[in-house]
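Posted in: Protein Modeling Q&A

I'm a second-year student putting together a small comparison for a lab meeting, and my supervisor asked me to include a predicted structure for THH1/TOM1/TOM3 domain-containing protein. I've never done this before, so apologies if this is the wrong subforum. The sequence is pasted below exactly as I got it from our records. If anyone can share the structure token output, I'd also love a short note on what stands out.
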Amino acid sequence: HRVPEYGWTTQKVFQFLNFLVNGARCSIFAFRRQVQLVNPQQIFQHVILDLPGLAFFTTYAMLALFWAEISYQARGLDTDGLRSGFYIINGVVYAMQVLVWVLLWLNPNPSMLVLSKLFIAGLSFSAALGFLLYGGRLFLMLKRFPIESKGRQQKLSEVGRVATICSCCFLARCVMMCFAAFNKDADLDVLDHPILNFIYYLLVEIVPSALVLYILRRIPSKLKLAHYHPLSSG
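Accepted answer (user: helix_wrangler)
Welcome! Here is the predicted structure, written out as tokens:
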């Protein structure tokens, strides 16, 4: 067996989205004083602050999708529903977020702010579970490859580290958003607490992204599974 690799296009798209998301987050810090002057102030501030987080979720959900596709293909399973499921899930997530924004605009009370934060917390918890599930499946699949398989040890280490980093950063985001939802003093709004917010996003987005990009820095040849033998489920 040759251990499966990410496709060249997959790797480049993932890297591009990472740089885009982190660039957007850094731009918010750089222009936060201008963001404060946006009118109608509150709802547009929520949109500006929430969009990079949604894009971060989509970027890493795409990585989990690639892991799922590799795992399914190597086991000889049909992958047709995975990509359509990815698009449907993301469409539902963005539609729900738009609904939350509309409700905040129409009725900007504290309970709606709590709902907005809990939505992000639930999204982050789902992403953490996704990495534990698909990262764990791929890790166990790779362990069943023969020891002499080319790239086996490197890929085991890569999947294990990336799954751990992503699960931890999404779980940390979930915990912090839940805490912020019910504790006004722990509000993570960048416009009210720029230093606290910078540290928060540094730990849950910027540093994890940098670590993942470093781990996945090698650009492989395109994914080819034609020569793989499907792994037995036993």
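A couple of things worth pointing out for your meeting: Residues 41-74 form the longest helix (34 residues). The mean pLDDT is 79.
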